[in-house]
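Entry type: protein chain
Record version: 2
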Amino acid sequence: MKVTDVFISGIGVHLPDTVPIEQAVADGLIAEGPARESGYTGAAVAGDMPPVEMALAASRQALARSGQDPTGLSLLLYADNYNNGPVGWYPQAYLQRHLVGGHLATAEVRQGCNGMFAALELAAGFLAGQGPDATAMTVAADNISMPHVNRWQCLAPDFVVGDAASAVVLTRAPGVAQLLSVTSTTVVELEEMGRGRQPLFPSRDDAAAWDLARRIEDFQVDVAARDDGESPWLPLIKARIEVIDQALDEAGIKVSDITRVAYNHSSRQHMEDGVLRTLGIGIDRSNWEFGRHLGHLGSSDQVVFLDHALRSGELAPGDHLLMLGISPGLNIAAAVVRILAAPSWSSSHPQRGTA
């Protein structure tokens, strides 16, 4: 979707302290070989802090940085991957109560690790029909610190899972950056990969149900057993190229105009095979070096990097950030952001927990 006159006026991030991967090896949570091969140095671990409280901290920071009055919000979208509170309770109402109160449109977005992309796409469409003073906020938060989940191995060999929250304030008036395009597609042929052999109902909340890596392995075994001569990965490769091309075309830029690329925090091999070779861009222009110290932060990877790059000066006015994501479904998403100004918070370095 080509986006017109939608700007980022504030970004908020909550990052808990990191646990070194050597500690996970010592605790028997991951073998030394896979730990070394992954390239990760650690993961951000929130412990028993509720993800919605992380989201509240990130949201308050984003609003403070934007200078926007919280009561002026017209839309609040909350993206998450895992349960963010009691069953039958919805976290966006908690944020609304403690941030804004009053009347505005709110919703929870479930698009896996591409939840922030989905929220940005929905928010941009919403703002297109609003007046010049309209403001929206997209928020993402997750904490996978559950006793039956091993964050060091539950997803895939390429992913160590970290905890985080992020928030973006979107306005119709110019801000520190402009959202030029956001788009997504679903490769339905690979829907089964995120499901594996798990029953559709009833669901379980135990270690077996959270072994997402096993689902991928089972899918690969089942595909090989079919022996129909067709690669299941060709639709993925084709869709990824099409999404990237569409995002760049709608943003009015070329690959050569991309300053940095932000993808799901993952192993170096996954980063290079999944994105960088397609673009012809080196690892030094990606977010790999930054993300390998934090783990895969669910829906927050790309926004957390954007905040870091703005604060550190890695992105400056005139630069373009291509954000890319992949999530079960199988969903592929992309967005292009143009930096307009150095943010007022770029010279400050907040303490860990509100960075």
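Comment: The chain has two domains: 7-174, 180-339.
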